Amino acid sequence: MRMVDFIEKKKQGKNLSKEEIDFIVEGYVSGEIPDYQMSAFLMAVYFQKMSMEETVNLTMAMAHSGDLLDLSGIKGKKVDKHSTGGIGDKTTLVLGPMVAAAGFPVAKMSGRGLGFTGGTIDKLESIPGFSTGMETKQFFSQVNSIGLAVTGQTGNLTPADKKIYALRDVTATVDCIPLIASSIMSKKIASGADVIVLDVKCGSGAFMKDEASASALAKTMCEIGNGVGRRTMALVSDMDQPLGFAVGNSLEVMEAIQVLSGKKEPADLRELCLQLGSYMIHGSDSSISVKEAYERLEKTLEDGSALEKFRAFVQAQGGNQDVTKDFSLFPQSKAKQEILATQEGYITHVDAMLIGEASMVLGAGRAKKGDDVNLAVGVVLHKKVNDYVKVGEPLVSVYYDSEKLLEDAKERINAAFTYGPRANSNHKLIHQLFV
Ligand code: URA
Question: How far is the CA of 75 from the centre of ligand 1 (A)?
Answer without folding.
Answer: 29
